């Protein structure tokens, strides 16, 4: 009944091809099979499965960013996949592979012999008019012989029902990682249906893509890196996922350096050769020496390294000019000239106005065709628009645009107006047709071109869509290519004898070490602030607290929050309860628990590819737990509850790191960050609550803050005393919250890290920890005073600076002693 209701109410748009309903108005069998399976679920179970998909998306940290927005959005994935039969996909794949081969030959000619331009088959201005054409790459033979390693094309059904190419993607095609993420989510939620419909797997494609990238290197085991613009990139989540899935390094421009015609990764062990770079940075930003001088995300000297054959960059810088709409006008003829055959998948009909005859045709048909920029995405003279149809313009706009085309036609193209075909989209408890665009990927492999059996589908919520990009109201969908026979399971696992066993994780990039270190520090700061806030709020709830605890302890707890930048000093007049609430979640103050949790998340976002999905989920949950109801005033009791929940999340995070994070260099830096911060904070708290003027109440607060009340009570039968408290907080090597415990862990961690000096002299971080450890081992609690405690705190901060100076990146203009440690 439900299936019949869905299909009966489904109304394709007049004259628009649809995936569910064919040209004769009949529903396609493979779609009916899938929808029948959906209809077999009762409404509650279907909602549960959809909720499970949403939960998996959140847990995996799947997100994207819209241009101009600071915060990421949760990935919008549709409920229904796009279905394509194997027979139809075979034709699509042939057309895409043919197109990829054609563009590869065009690139080879444009940057090589130049016969196409010399013969007039391709006007020079149609190439050089694009900012993505790079004359500096002329005459450069790409390592491995290919300029394209990953090609993508946006396709849709044309008016005749066949698939048409809407636009080529050769610069740095995005979306294949999101396509894989979509598949993982949907296949888990509807695993039974996924198997029944014989959906072709994606893993073999990514295995072939990895083999193709590897073939571009000059060594048998090349080091491959994904070059990212950084965490503010619109698709950073995808880049991090691809790095984790494929086992590649995720790097930014500052991570790489060019030396002697080769590119190296800055690691904690010195410079290590980088053989292949899969760039997700537009070519113009790749090399500030030869291209855009304002770039801070590129690698100075990268193009020179490419010219010298020292690094393989995929796709080659300069391939982006293929994406211009001007090129679409010439591809049909180029296919006949270079391949000796017509395009299997035709373009949208395009006329480049840089040619007199085509310009006149566009002006004659001005009202009925789409006018678009020949190069780039912004239509000259039409602010904020990427394309227009003449009849939709005002008389003044029409006249201005016609004059612009007549004066400088090379900047414009005319295109046939394309109405996107539609596919079923789940809306409440039913289906409705919505326009979509499908991006298909093709990888150059040692065995030729290989097309991903699926793709990245974007579905609009608007009925009349001429372009679909990820933004408000657009969702993505998994793409199922339905095989005629059962599909064997596949994975990225190589053969057992093709991998050399090793127990080292490789060399940690300096940027990753830096952010792991600071993630640990921010996490520890968050915990320390939560403990102070909890202590203050708990005592403000007790009406006898001022008598039992003493006003001195409450004032000093509030003073600590002011000193740590968590609370405004002016707010102290409102009392301990208000101060504790502000210290918990005031987003204005950099030292509040909420601000510190956000800083921890920002540091973690840069190393997302090194974190498990559960770890990333907990990092995001910390902020939510601390501030579940923004804007609502909190009571002191609620503050206590929220701090307890926040500390529980941090404990879970600590457990995940301790139990699941491999004890390599990355883990060492995370631990050192936490230890440095915990040791310094303990020294600060000791000077406030266990100083020369300490009372039994302030000493009790000190034991609370270092979570040592039970241990102290079991060890000392008498009440709290100054020397034993100082010993437990500072010198006790068995107390995991003591300062000496932190120093010992830092020293043990540094001992495991690689060294650059081979002369037997200790490097500065190891020298400082060795000296500090020895001094603390011989220190006596009875001899401690505020000055000596302050000196220990300062030595810990000096140690943190020495770790940063030795292992982390510095500004591009700052001198840095670096050592190339061979080709490993």
TrEMBL record:
Residues 508-808 form the DUF403 domain. Residues 81-459 form the Circularly permuted ATP-grasp type domain. Signal peptide: none annotated. It holds the Pfam family Alpha-E. InterPro entries: ATP-dep_Glu-Cys_Ligase-2 (IPR051680), CP_ATPgrasp_2 (IPR025841), DUF403 (IPR007296). This is Putative circularly permuted ATP-grasp superfamily protein. It comes from Roseiarcus fermentans.
